[in-house]
Amino acid sequence: xxxxxxxxxxxxxxxxxxxxxxxxxxxxxxxxxxxxxxxxxxxxxxxxxxxxxxxxxxxxxxxxxxxxxxxxxxxxxxxxxxxxxxxxxxxxxxxxxxxxx
Length: 101
Ligand code: SF4
Ligand code: SF4
Known about the structure:
Elements: H1 12-25, H2 29-33, H3 55-59, E1 65-69, E2 75-79, H4 89-93, H5 95-100
Antiparallel strand pairs: 1-2
The protein binds iron/sulfur cluster (2 copies).
One iron/sulfur cluster binds next to helix 4.
């Protein structure tokens, strides 16, 4: 969200995702190299389960996530299954998803 001067003010969703991102990036390098999740991650089932905060895109250690516009032009993450190593970082950083469960 931008104010009248054009400065970006993070939404509460963005702030909590940034906190989760900082927690996860603080994890040890050893943990980052270990697969934590075996299944292919499902970040959202419909657009209402994702606020497009970019946290998963930013935290992915393999650059497996692209932000792709939906039919309204809003960006949502898409995972390249061939590149994803199922580490689970994207799921763990998603604070928006935690609010739904
Ligand atoms: S899936 Fe979660 S972390 Fe990724 S953009 Fe959507 S709300 Fe943010
Ligand atoms: S599981 Fe890991 S490698 Fe796969 S998209 Fe998520 S963060 Fe990237």
